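Revision sheet: structure tokens.
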Amino acid sequence: MLALNRSAIIVRPKLPFLEWLHAADPTSAALTLADLALEPTIYLVPECADGEQERAALQTVFRTIFENQLDGWWRDRATWPSSRSFGMFGQWFDCQFHSTLLDLADEPLIEEPYLNAT
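Predicted:
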């Protein structure tokens, strides 16, 4: 078992994100917040020891997370909100930090580029 020197951010959309998705994608009308939260995205960031470090880490990466979340549900960038501030990010997404990450797999970690990276 290996302890990873990372913190994890679990990101779940909130109501403003769902409302945007419904407006952008008519086929998403039946989706609920519960549907969007079924399999949240987890992002690894440098290890955070306290709430202040968590906030600093989130301020560093929120733009990437915001765009990844939008892209994961609707790829037409013309429908994305043009102003994506840190405040708006907090209104659109719930973020939960975890500081203890243990790797129980025997296989080595393999770095692969993420296809949806923006």
